[in-house]
Structure formats: structure tokens, C-alpha cells
Design a protein that fits this description.
This protein is an alpha+beta fold. It has a single domain, classed as 2-Layer Sandwich (Alpha-Beta Plaits). The protein contains four helices and four strands. The chain has a four-stranded antiparallel β-sheet with strand order 2-3-1-4. β2 and β3 form a beta hairpin. It is globular and about 50 Å long.
Length: 101
């Protein structure tokens, strides 16, 4: 199942402005890779950020939002950001579903 993980932090907690946040940020990619299997994350499809909006967007293929929640806690994303986890649908699959109902 696809999920969008939207993480927003304040300018004060931005890795550009905060040494502790920078340390956490620089370790996130390695921690995501190291913990994917533990939290049933099949794939991380993309990790994007908008620097001036202080927002990150991660697209994951995962078993559940609860697993993603625990992953975000473990890797440190939730230590510096408010996190929203949203189930996503592939547009093509949604179109097919609409045509068959």
C-alpha cells in the first residue's frame, strides 16, 4: 500500500538553522535503509523536500501507517517535525476502479 509521509518543521528546527536537527537529518537516510525491513517498508519510492516551506515528503510502499509511525519515531523524523501519514492511490489504478464500478 502506498503512503505519503508529510513532515513539517519550524524554521528554528530546520537542519539549516539547528545543529541537533542537522545531525538527525544527516543520519535519516542510513537509518531509513537500516530499519525498512523491521517496519515492513517494502520500498521508499521518493524523498523530497521544499527547503523554504520546511516540509519533507516521503512516498513509501508499506504494510501499514502504524509501521510508518514507528519508523518515523525510530529514525528521528518525529523528533524535529510534525508528521502526517496519508494513504495514497496510484492514479491509473483509481481510473481503472472507476471504470469498473
Amino acid at each position: 500500500m502506498l503512503f505519503g509521509v508529510f513532515a513539517v518543521h519550524s524554521p528554528e528546527l530546520c537542519p539549516l538553522n539547528n545543529k541537533n536537527s542537522r545531525k538527525i537529518f544527516l543520519e535519516i537516510q542510513g537509518k531509513l535503509k537500516a530499519n525498512k525491513k523491521k517496519f515492513h517498508i517494502q520500498k521508499i519510492l521518493g524523498f523530497y523536500m521544499s527547503v523554504l516551506e520546511h516540509e519533507w515528503t516521503i512516498i513509501m510502499d508499506a504494510s501499514s501507517a502504524h509501521d510508518i509511525e514507528q519508523l518515523c519515531i525510530t529514525v528521528g523524523i518525529s523528533a524535529i517535525s510534525t508528521v502526517k501519514i496519508v494513504p495514497m492511490n496510484d492514479f491509473k489504478k483509481a481510473v481503472i476502479r472507476l471504470k469498473t464500478t
